[in-house]
Amino acid sequence: MIQSMTAFAREEAQGDWGSVVWELRALNARYLDLSVRIPEEFRSLEAEVRAMVGNCLQRGKVECNLRFRSAPGQEGGLDADLGLARELARISREIDGLLYDSARINSMDIMRWPGVVSSRPPDVKVVHRAVLDALAAGLVDLRAARAREGEKIEQMIRSRCGEILTIVSEIRENYPTLIAELRARLKKKLTGLIAELDAGRVEQEVVLLTQKADVAEELDRLEAHVVEVEKMLGLSKPVGRRLDFFMQELNREANTLGSKSCDLKMTQAAVDLKVLIEQMREQIQNVE
Questions:
Q1: What architecture is domain 149-284?
Q2: What is the pLDDT of residues 194-225, one digit of tens each?
Q3: Residue 273 to residue 213: CA distance in whole angstroms
Q4: Domain 7-78+121-148 has CATH 3.30.230
Q5: Residue 260's Cα: distance from chain center in Å?
């Protein structure tokens, strides 16, 4: 079953130490584009978080946001980055020297700067396992959401594949009649334009022109590509890029079919094929 790249999951874990909440968002992307936002006190987990997501997902723009809240009375205190604070104070004094009427800043202003002050959980090791377990559960939910959306896309693709095969079958069934009508029109036109040609020469010209209008190969390839698409829909591995490739191949055959058209109905059939292929292609952009 195919997987969609678009999904959302939220997972929360609680304990005596407080609570953590993961919010996972996944959107379309050609490759895996991972963004991780976690509090500074859990920054040491980022490499493991990225590895867990990478082992679970192959494609998509994925945002992983973690929020942590200490339980009342369980706060482990605050940490201050004094080196960053000194650097901010130094830069502030230099800028003050450039201004005509500079506004004074105090320690609270510096403390509000990101990274200067951070909260410290009571025992990081106790919380780490809960954070990673919550992420694992969130990824399971995210995969399930992607699978549900993928099932809808798969049903749509199978429906469009069926319509394509119906159109191809109708063209194949009507093709002998179309060719017979084409031969009659060409023979009449050539006989009228080049009266001095003998019947054999006229027949040769008619055969050459009708051969150029032969679409049997295009119909065969359309059917073969549809069969391959349906096979890929049953695979458990990511198939989005391969499906996109076959959409290009299907579109190429539909274009060739249209260029060889010798009848208004065939032209309309080629247009209908292109519409169906484009509808599939739009949805396949969202397949992992």
A1: Up-down Bundle (1.20)
A2: 555 555 555 555 555 555 667 888 999 999 99
A3: 18
A4: yes
A5: 34
